[in-house]
């Protein structure tokens, strides 16, 4: 989705993206006339957008106003590595996060993207939320026009980083605000479908029904578990919880793959027990922190129930 | 206080914690219970936002207002078919119990049903592990259908015959009555056929006696005995169904 510039004033914006207007020069002039009030506003919000590497050489036009404003803002800006951050999304605010954008741009159709750096914890916590590319100025790249491989690479990187945060031991796991700030639903989708497929391949009869049961249990189960926490008066964000429950399936995926390859009952029981314990360990801090301590068991039990039933499916399917 | 609207403080609590700015809708606020014909429908705010409340998670939080120890206490008192259960849930009926008891029971029936069938067949034919995944769908349809439809049907029947029940309390009570089948399904793994019948008869009997006592308490009137008896018989029939279809 195209990201829009936060500081865009209500006046009509000319599309400055390269993909829309082939003639850059008339744009600059018209943009110049619109520039002065915007410069003042941008000076006031000096830390809220970033211009990174332009993707096309034609966009390296020298926009003098752009350069001037950037030089004006430069003392407060730091140069972050050019990792495109994720679009702004609802997340539990923590103290080290950059201040949220003060206003959403009113023009969703504008093709001038900005970045709201809300990357995961690998970014240094003290960094100011400006991501300026290390080379060149100009309009920031648009995710609509970047190569597909870039998008895929970025999503894969996000999946891997979320996985490392959630499933593997790291010091930030206990803090629900930090654990999955950059949640996404691609990871859970891959893991659920992979688990369903693995179970379906393992089954000798009724393969499609096995996939249907596994997928339904996992998908509906994640939604119902999240609703359960919300109904018990807990404080979680719906999609963040879905994302977490999906990522915690990763150990069970590994277990299902091992069970698919080696069909020995004792081995299956051992593998499933280990991976089940791992999954539950991964999901426990998040779910237990979300509710009142007197209701912790009420929120945790259904999680265990879901993972145990999936574990049973893995053992039982032959 | 049966059938009266939920007291405002509880609802307000839910509103405060759930960022809900408006009063929950009247049907959810009084639990779908019977309202006497003369009473006003709560407040004017409620009737305006009536239908929207159904789709809002926050309007259902009053029914999940239980702590762990409360739920455990209710579970234990459902196993001993004693009379005090209805008094326990009268003030604060919860839907957490019925929802997760039925879900647990679905999983247990499917998993242990398969395992028990395997254990029985192992005596005659070695190593014929045949996992029937349709047990899951069958268990899900039967248990969810029973837990939702039967209390609702009896609610309407009781109302037709003049009593004044409360739907939420019926759902709560029927849901907790299913809890005894959870340990029973574990015990039904024992591959001795006679013992299995004894176990299921015991569990079914305890469950129907539980239903009988609590219905008798909550619907005053001796002329309801036919309905109450039919509810107990239905519960026993469910027990037999579980035995025949899952633990053959």
UniProtKB/TrEMBL annotation, chain A:
UniProt keyword Membrane present: yes
Keywords tagged on the record: Membrane, Transmembrane, Transmembrane helix
Sequence ranges assigned to domain Yip1 in this UniProt record: 169-312
UniProt-annotated location(s): Golgi apparatus membrane; Membrane
Top-level taxon: Eukaryota
Transmembrane parts of this sequence: 185-203, 210-231, 237-258, 265-286, 298-317
Gene Ontology terms: biological process: endoplasmic reticulum to Golgi vesicle-mediated transport
Pfam name, any one: Yip1
One annotated Gene Ontology cellular component of this protein: Golgi membrane
Region described as Disordered: spans on this chain: 1-119
InterPro entries per the UniProt record, alphabetical: Yip1/4-like, Yip1_dom
Protein name: Protein YIP
Source organism per UniProt: Aegilops tauschii subsp. strangulata (Goatgrass)
UniProtKB/TrEMBL annotation, chain B:
Pfam families named in the record: Yip1
Main location: Golgi
Boundaries of every Yip1 domain copy: 80-241
A biological process from GO: vesicle-mediated transport
Topology term for the membrane: Multi-pass membrane protein
Segments traversing the membrane: 95-115, 135-158, 170-188, 194-213, 225-246
One GO molecular-function entry: small GTPase binding
Protein name per the record: Protein YIP
Lineage: Eukaryota, Viridiplantae, Streptophyta, Embryophyta, Tracheophyta
């Amino acid at each position: 989705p195209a990201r829009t510039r936060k500081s865009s004033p209500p006046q009509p914006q000319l599309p400055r993206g390269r993909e829309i207007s082939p003639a850059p020069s008339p744009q600059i002039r018209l943009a110049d006339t619109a520039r002065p009030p915007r410069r003042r506003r941008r000076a006031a919000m000096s830390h809220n957008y970033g211009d990174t590497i332009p993707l096309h050489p034609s966009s390296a036009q020298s926009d003098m106003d752009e350069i001037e404003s950037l030089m004006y803002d430069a003392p407060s800006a730091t140069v972050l590595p050019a990792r495109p951050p994720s679009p702004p999304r609802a997340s539990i605010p923590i103290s080290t996060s950059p201040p949220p954008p003060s206003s959403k741009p009113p023009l969703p159709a504008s093709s001038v993207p900005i970045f709201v750096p809300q990357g995961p914890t690998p970014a240094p916590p003290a960094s100011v939320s400006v991501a300026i590319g290390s080379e060149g100025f100009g309009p920031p790249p648009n995710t609509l026009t970047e190569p597909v491989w870039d998008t895929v690479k970025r999503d894969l990187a996000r999946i891997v980083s979320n996985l490392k945060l959630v499933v593997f031991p790291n010091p930030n796991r206990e803090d629900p605000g930090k654990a999955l700030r950059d949640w996404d639903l691609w990871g859970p989708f891959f893991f659920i479908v992979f688990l369903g497929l693995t179970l379906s391949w393992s089954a000798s009869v009724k393969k499609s029904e096995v996939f249907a049961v596994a997928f339904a249990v996992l998908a509906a189960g994640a939604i119902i578990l999240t609703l359960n926490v919300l109904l018990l008066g807990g404080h979680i964000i719906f999609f963040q919880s879905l994302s977490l429950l999906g990522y915690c399936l990763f150990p069970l995926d590994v277990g299902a793959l091992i069970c698919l390859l080696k069909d020995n009952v004792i081995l299956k029981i051992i593998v499933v027990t280990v991976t089940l314990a791992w999954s539950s360990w991964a999901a426990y801090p998040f779910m237990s922190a979300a509710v009142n301590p007197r209701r912790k068991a009420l929120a945790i039990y259904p999680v265990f129930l879901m993972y145990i039933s999936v574990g049973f499916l893995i053992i039982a399917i032959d | 206080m049966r059938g009266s609207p939920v007291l405002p403080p509880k609802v307000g609590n839910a509103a405060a914690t759930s960022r809900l700015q408006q009063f929950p809708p009247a049907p959810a606020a009084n639990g779908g219970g019977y309202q006497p014909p003369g009473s006003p429908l709560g407040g004017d705010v409620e009737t305006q936002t009536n239908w929207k409340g159904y789709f809002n998670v926050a309007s259902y939080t009053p029914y999940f207002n239980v702590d762990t120890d409360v739920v455990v206490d209710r579970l234990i008192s459902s196993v001993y078919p004693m009379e005090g259960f209805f008094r326990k849930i009268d003030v604060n009926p919860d839907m957490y119990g019925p929802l997760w008891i039925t879900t647990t029971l679905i999983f247990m029936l499917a998993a242990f049903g398969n395992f028990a069938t395997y254990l029985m067949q192992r005596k005659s034919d070695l190593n014929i592990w045949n996992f029937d995944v349709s047990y899951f769908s069958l268990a899900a349809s039967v248990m969810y259908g029973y837990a939702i439809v039967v209390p609702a049907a009896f609610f309407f029947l009781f109302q037709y015959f003049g009593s004044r029940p409360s739907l939420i309390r019926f759902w709560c009570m029927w849901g907790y009555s299913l809890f005894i089948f959870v340990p029973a399904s574990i015990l039904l793994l024992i591959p001795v056929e006679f013992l299995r019948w004894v176990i299921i008869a015991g569990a079914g009997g305890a469950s129907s006696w539980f239903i009988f006592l609590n219905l008798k308490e909550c619907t005053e009137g001796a002329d309801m005995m036919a309905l109450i008896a039919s509810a107990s018989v239905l519960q026993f029939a469910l027990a037999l169904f579980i035995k025949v279809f899952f633990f053959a």
